Amino acid sequence: MSGDRLRWAIFTVSIVSSVENPSAHLWRALGRRLRQRENDAVFFETRGNRALQALLHRERSEGLNAFRARFPDLHYQTVDQRSGFALAEWLNRTLSTVDIALVDRDASPELIAALSEFSRPFLQTFLVDPGWSAEPIDPAPAANLTGVLAGNDELVAAYAHGSEAARVYPFGPLPANLVERDPTEEQVAMLNDAAERAIAAIIRVSEKIRRARGTQIVANGRTDHS
Q1: Per-domain residue ranges for the chain?
Q2: What is the pLDDT confidence band of residue 2, given thresholds at 50, 70 and 90?
Q3: pLDDT tens digits for 126-165?
Q4: What residues contact residue 182 under an 8 Å CB cut-off, 6+ apart?
Q5: What would be the CATH architecture of the domain defined by 7-221?
Q6: What is the value of pTM for the model shown?
Q7: What is the mean pLDDT of residues 172-200?
């Protein structure tokens, strides 16, 4: 699978704006790494999200133009906020041809819960928590995902302790204090390395699931051996 052209759906707070949203820097690094691997990745962010609103308030359309000029290779869609049946129906359509779905720990709790309940053989779903927030989120939904990617050892322990069923994979270290503006050269290098480790962990799990296809596959591609 490491040589396959995989299809990714990535649900973020925002990839366009890093204002009050430092995770955008990580998602941009991950998106570029996926492009280098010739994988297909689409980022989704909610229309009118807080990070985008903050960017528009500060820089108006110049902020959007700057992102598009700097990251023309990253594909993203702005989508309406959905809940309940409308959210489940939209996810069913959106993920119909997707191999891997990632969700930001700061995405809406309803979206995270919906992904944790989403059932489709061989689709892998991962929560990504870089560790820049004070506490991990409620680990209960994570138990039904394929796995959790945690940015530091403390988070790995917190998610593993919070739910024995959760599969937790480290991908740090990450920059400790990431700011809204452009990261330093050293921080960029750390983000790129962390993005590569995250992708490698996801593909490693995916390959284990593919090899285990002769065993029972459960929701979100999980097996007893993954």
Answers
A1: 7-221
A2: low
A3: 999 999 887 778 878 888 899 999 999 999 988 888 877 6
A4: none
A5: 3-Layer(aba) Sandwich (3.40)
A6: 0.90
A7: 90
